[in-house]
Specification:
The complex is a heterodimer of chains A (409) and B (186).
Chain A (H helix, E strand, L loop, with lengths): L2 H16 L10 H13 L8 H26 L3 H9 L2 H22 L45 E7 L4 E2 L4 E9 L5 E6 L2 E6 L5 E5 L4 E5 L4 E8 L12 E14 L5 E13 L7 E11 L2 E11 L2 E8 L28 E7 L2 E7 L1 E5 L2 E9 L8 E9 L2 E10 L2
Parallel strand pairs in A: 2-10
Antiparallel strand pairs in A: 1-3, 3-8, 4-7, 4-9, 5-6, 5-9, 9-10, 11-12, 12-13, 13-17, 14-15, 14-18, 16-17, 18-19
Chain B lengths: L19 H22 L3 H18 L10 H22 L5 H7 L7 H19 L2 H11 L5 H8 L3 H24 L1
Helix pairs in contact in B: 1-2, 1-3, 1-6, 2-3, 3-7, 4-5, 5-8, 6-8, 7-8
The chains are: A alpha+beta (409), B mainly alpha (186).
Amino acid sequence: MDKKDMERDFLNNLERVLEGKEIEPGLNDDSRSALDFARKMLSLRVNPSPLFHDTLRNRMLQKIEKKEREAEHEKGGSFWERLWENWKRPVWRTVTVGLVSALVIVVIMGYSGMFTYFTPQFLDEEPALPETAQAPAPEPAPVPEPGPAPLELQAPLEVIMSTEEDFYRAGEDVAIEFVFINTSDEEQTIRPFPPLVEITESGTGETVRSFPSGSTHRKLLPGEAVEYELNWDQLDSQGQPVLPGWFNVYAKEISITRGTSKRTIVMSGGGRLLISYPQGAMELDIALDQSQTVNGVTVALERAEFTEGGVNFYAFTSSLGRQQSSRVEPNAYPPPEPAPLEPVIAHAEYTYNGVTKDAGYAGFGFREDGIELSWMRLDPVPSDAGELTFTITKLGDYEGPWEFRISLE
Amino acid sequence: MKKPEGILDRPSVGNAGVSRDKFIELYEQYLPRVFRYMTYRVSDKCVAEDLTSEVFEKVIDKFASYKPGKSSISTWLFTIARNTLIDHYRKAERKKTVPLENIVEMQETKSSPEEEYERQEEQQRLKVCLAALSVQEQEIVSLKFGSELNNRQIAGVMGLSETNIGTILYRSIRKLRDCFGGWQNG
């Protein structure tokens, strides 16, 4: 066996090791010991903590929202907003004042009879603009630049999860359809077919129901698609109905073998679905001005948004976030620069109609005077909830609770 | 059939970039892989978290410039991750940071049961061996083991041929084994 063959066999088996499979027999001792070592290298894999996962996710969603707001602002607000923006410019202010003054003078002169004896002939004729003064043809509306192309995950297999409805009421059967499309230019075999499907709570990541995989396989020609439909009765694995909210539905551990190659790729794919309350979801946007001080730390709950798709909470604290610096004399000159703001970890939960849901960890953003905290895209709240309690359980090193009662009447 | 995302899918505004739902899809799929890539390359978990955050910040900022026809999303994303790491090491160089090997050696080991202690020591030694490879070898091993990329995708990120990647991986894993074996026997 030459060096190239050894290398090829080694690399094929390395893929097997990474997929958790056994090494094929017939390898020399050198390659085998290197592959055993590769297995050891996998022990260095560390998963991100749930705290980091939630905090970063919320912070990034906040960033996207900010970018969307900025883009909307750049596109311009309403006509009056744009007029006001222009009015604030000195040139336009001068022009506008001049025009208004001229108009006032004309009106006064008209009322005082100064124009009574002067009726120029041109007022009786059809107005005719000289050729040079003709209004220019309107410029064709600019064709909007196409936005960024939709995201395409270029895996050899595309997995599309879809449902009949945008959302389902509690208790309704959920018809879930998966479509697996061979996006490569080779024949593929996917196994097992149908694959394992898991439904997890979006907020906590806990698996509520699994649909076991089949025991067959499915060959797909380039571009060919195969469908798999399943029905979820909204029960968890213990036969209890799940609480309304967002759920992730994923087809998992799909092994794909391309063409005649021995190499296998394992992937998963899916989407999200929403179970809504039978009575509908609360839709409200409330500006709040509630603040709570616990253990010397003050937090203000500034806003709560309730939509059919979820709830967002926005809070602010100026009590935390700065590093403790050494004591500074009160009259020190020049005054020292304030210490930079440091992110804080904030965890919360919310309760309505006797149901408590974990809001997870907050995303954060910095203002000059403190830190904004946001909990976004939480499960929706039913339309008949009279009151909601939002509780920040932990903020940095401080234990709460900072409790805020929000009337939803 | 309608996609369930429709209910909340706020389309991208102008060139603002990725929509929230698309971002979540991307985030859930790639966060563990980006984070693992970072943990293979830096010894401090907090630094790995900071660098991972930086990568996703850049993904949002640069999403409008992503061209699906030009590269796959994984190649694009891990190119950002790799450049973020290169910048990190450049800054560390300017700050005269202690080399990785020393950091690993200096890490405080908590008192724990013997097995846990051995496991931690083994992991530290693995990191020391990894840090002893050339930067290119470290990158390829981290993309393979941490990011779960195939050799073609690694080739796209690194700007090398798939065959080269295979050869470097083959060589690097054997070097790592020898380094680790030397420690066990020594």
